[in-house]
């Protein structure tokens, strides 16, 4: 398998669908739609929608069955970045190598862009039912799970604890809570959404859930590492942002060497969770290696 060629193909599929689902830039009022498209198409690896698609394929589904849900996860992720970048939270001027949304359009528009992306995401999740791509009960189940992952028991909860503990000492349990919720929740729900919509049985769904939980943790630890060891090209923003914002990270808590060890162990646990699957999960195996070796 040519992992990079397959990844490129899946990303292109997602980008094509996003272009179709998003309002055109000239739809009134144009400034909000231009800003939305600027935020969504500013770059990014599209890992979350790719995970939706790949989880579906692992259990016998097709990309077509889950494309609206895949795009929904990317919109939720993008909204979270737009809001994270705002001066009231992380105050970042660059994202993916380009000026952040609020630097281009102002804070008010950036807030509305995030609101619009989150709202549209749930319309896309519902579209899986309106287009008869999946049974209604499975679509409803996914909507409930994505709502939880994006809310105070998931992404928002992790972000809240991250804000509350900025410039304050934390223990290892709290640090892991932040990582598993702020970042890991969307990884987990992306994989589960694809699997559920494609009709996964409980055994396969549980294995894929364990995979996603560990993958999300490995991914965030690697991001912590890259903030110390990376540069503008790798990060798409200036390095050292976590230190500047006095964030608690795996590197600040454990040091660089132990953080790398923890990322490696999380990646190994993710790979171990794929044991029930054969070659149908090879892409997920390669994706895990890609993530853990990016620093």
Sequence-ordered SSE layout with sheet pairings:
Elements: H1 3-21, H2 30-40, H3 47-58, H4 63-84, E1 94-95, E2 98-99, H5 101-105, H6 107-130, H7 136-150, H8 155-164, H9 172-182, H10 184-197, H11 202-229, H12 232-235, H13 241-244, H14 250-254, H15 256-273, H16 282-292
Antiparallel strand pairs: 1-2
Task: Please characterize this protein's 3D structure.
By secondary structure, the chain is an all-alpha fold. The protein has one domain: Farnesyl Diphosphate Synthase, CATH 1.10.600. It has helices spanning 3-21, 30-40, 47-58, 63-84, 101-105, 107-130, 136-150, 155-164, 172-182, 184-197, 202-229, 232-235, 241-244, 250-254, 256-273, 282-292, and strands at 94-95, 98-99. The longest helix has 28 residues, at 202-229.
């Amino acid at each position: 398998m040519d992992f990079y060629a397959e990844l490129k193909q899946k990303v292109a599929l997602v980008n094509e669908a996003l272009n179709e689902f998003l309002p055109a830039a000239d739809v009134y009022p144009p400034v909000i739609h231009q800003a939305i498209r600027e935020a969504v198409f500013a770059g990014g690896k599209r890992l979350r929608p790719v995970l939706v698609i790949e989880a579906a394929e692992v259990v016998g589904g097709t990309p077509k069955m889950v494309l609206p849900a895949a795009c929904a996860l990317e919109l939720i992720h993008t909204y979270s970045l737009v809001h994270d970048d705002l001066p009231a939270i992380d105050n970042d001027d660059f994202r993916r190598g380009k000026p952040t949304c609020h630097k281009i359009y102002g804070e008010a528009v950036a807030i509305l862009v995030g609101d619009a992306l989150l709202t549209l995401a749930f319309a896309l999740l519902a579209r899986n039912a309106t287009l008869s791509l999946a049974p209604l009960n499975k679509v409803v189940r996914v909507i409930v799970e994505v709502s939880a992952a994006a809310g105070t028991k998931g992404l928002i909860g992790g972000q809240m604890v991250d804000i509350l503990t900025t410039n304050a000492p934390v223990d290892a349990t709290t640090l892991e809570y932040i990582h598993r919720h702020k970042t890991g929740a969307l990884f987990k729900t992306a994989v589960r959404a694809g699997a559920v919509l494609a009709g996964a049985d409980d055994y396969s769904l549980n294995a894929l859930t364990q995979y996603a939980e560990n993958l999300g943790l490995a991914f965030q630890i690697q991001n912590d590492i890259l903030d110390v060891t990376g540069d503008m090209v790798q990060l798409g923003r200036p390095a050292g942002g976590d230190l500047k914002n006095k964030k608690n990270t795996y590197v600040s808590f454990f040091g660089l060497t132990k953080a790398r060890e923890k990322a490696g162990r999380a990646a190994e646990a993710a790979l171990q969770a794929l044991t029930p699957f054969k070659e149908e999960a090879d892409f997920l195996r390669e994706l895990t290696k890609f993530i853990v070796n990016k620093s």
